[in-house]
């Protein structure tokens, strides 16, 4: 079902006790996992902590990994579970009460690279406002739709890989992505974008 897993050699080395293999795996997947977690947990400090926790759990549970799925899929599954646990935690709910609805969403640096230097200040401001509105709209999506959309549209996983992470069928992932996009389009239209 899966194609060749480029991480398998490092996973086997880690399984055999080579801790340097974990460093290589972290180097490969840290940025993608951070982006994924940050889209679920829009607090940079929490997202960094959860991303590190993904690797801690992977390290201590490496013997549970079965190469029937790609290693990266397994990592995203761990990340998704951590994000779900975090969103259910009391600390998360308390921290949400202190955030103003009017507060701008902080970028992680990568989004800023998307801006063209050819834009004038008015166009850049409008584009930033649209990006901020889109990030808020994604954050407000129901969890069942948000995860499917983030994994496929933003992180670039195939429907099959997202289905493995989420424990769903490919068809279910496709339907959730379709519904998420429809909800986003409706939200963006209501906001005037």
Give a brief rundown of this model.
With 193 residues, the protein is mainly alpha-helical. It folds into 2 domains: 1-99, Orthogonal Bundle (Rna Polymerase Sigma Factor, Chain: A); 102-193, Orthogonal Bundle (Arc Repressor Mutant, subunit A). It contains 9 helices and no strands.
CATH class of the largest domain: Mainly Alpha
CATH homologous superfamily placement of the largest domain? RNA polymerase sigma factor, region 2, helix turn helix motif
What is the ordering of alpha helices and beta strands?
A: HHHHHHHHH
Strand content: under 5%
Q: Based on the structure, what is the oligomeric state of the protein chains?
A: single chain
How is the main sheet built? none
CATH topology of the largest domain: Rna Polymerase Sigma Factor, Chain: A
The global form is globular
Distance between the termini: 40 Å
Give the tally of β-strands: 0
Q: Rounded to an integer, what's the Rg over CA atoms?
A: 18 Å
Number of helices: 9
Q: Report low-confidence residues grouped into runs of 5 or more.
A: 97-104, 108-117
Average pLDDT, rounded to a whole number, is 81
Sheet/helix structural class: mainly alpha
Number of domains: 2
Measured as a percent range, the helix fraction is: 55-70%
Shape-level CATH architecture of the largest domain: Orthogonal Bundle
Description of the structure:
The termini are far apart. With 193 residues, this protein is an all-alpha fold.
């Amino acid at each position: 079902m899966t194609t060749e897993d480029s991480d398998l050699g490092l996973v086997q080395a880690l399984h055999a006790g080579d801790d340097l293999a974990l460093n290589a795996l972290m180097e490969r997947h840290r940025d993608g996992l951070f982006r994924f977690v940050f889209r679920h947990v829009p607090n940079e400090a929490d997202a960094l902590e959860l991303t590190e926790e993904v690797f801690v759990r992977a390290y201590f549970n490496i013997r549970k990994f079965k190469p029937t799925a790609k290693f990266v899929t397994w990592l995203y599954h761990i990340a998704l579970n951590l994000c779900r646990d975090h969103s259910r935690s009391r600390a998360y709910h308390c921290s949400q009460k202190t955030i103003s609805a009017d507060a701008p969403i902080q970028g992680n640096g990568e989004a800023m690279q998307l801006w063209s230097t050819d834009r004038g200040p008015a166009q850049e401001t409008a584009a930033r406002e649209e990006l901020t509105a889109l990030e808020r709209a994604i954050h407000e999506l129901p969890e069942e739709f948000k995860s499917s959309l983030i994994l496929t549209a933003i992180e670039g996983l195939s429907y099959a890989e997202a289905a493995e992470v989420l424990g769903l069928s490919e068809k279910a992932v496709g339907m959730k992505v379709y519904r998420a996009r429809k909800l986003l389009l409706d939200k963006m239209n209501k906001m005037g974008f």
